[in-house]
Amino acid sequence: MGSSTLTTDASGNIVESADYIPYGGNRDTATIGSSNYHFTDQEWEPEVGLYNYDTRLYDPVIGRFVSGGG
Questions:
Q1: SS3 46
Q2: How far apart are CA 61 and CA 63, in angstroms?
Q3: What b/e string do you get for 33-70 counting C-beta neighbours within 10 Å, with b at 16 or more?
Q4: If you ran DSSP here, which 8-state letter would residue 26 be given?
Q5: How many Cα atoms occupy the beta-carbon half-sphere of 22 within 13 Å?
Q6: What digits encode the pLDDT tens for the residues 43-70?
Q7: Beta-carbon count within 10 A of 24 CB
Q8: How many angstroms separate the CA atoms of 51 and 69, rounded?
Q9: The dihedral of CA 22, 62, 32, 10: what is its sign?
Q10: Do 45 and 39 touch, CB atoms closer than 8 A?
Q11: CA-to-CA distance for 52 and 8, rounded, in angstroms?
Q12: pTM exceeds 0.90 for this model
């Protein structure tokens, strides 16, 4: 689905790893966050706990979009 699961630095050292449950919840809570782009390579908005799909916001807890398209 295009989700980033591993990010490395220029030397090949792992700086972030992620493992997702269905619908985008993060299975691994011990990751080191270097990027805000996660499930399906969409931007995670930590302030509200939702993914930003440009015109809609997605809640991985309920597995649904919570705002309408524009």
A1: coil
A2: 6
A3: eeeeebbeebebeeeeebbbeeeebbbbeeeeeeeeee
A4: B
A5: 1
A6: 778 788 888 888 889 898 898 999 765 5
A7: 20
A8: 14
A9: positive
A10: no
A11: 23
A12: no
Tell me: pLDDT of 31 over 60.
no
Compute the distance between CA of residue 29 and CA of residue 66 in angstroms, rounded to an integer.
23
Count CA within 13 A, CB hemisphere, residue 21.
Answer: 10
Q: Can you tell me the distance from the alpha carbon of 52 to that of 24, in angstroms, rounded to the nearest whole number?
A: 12
Q: Where are the beta strands (DSSP E) in 1-52?
A: 6-8, 14-17, 43-45, 50-52
- Nearest-5° angle of CA 56, CA 60, CA 62? 95
CA distance 4 to 28: 13
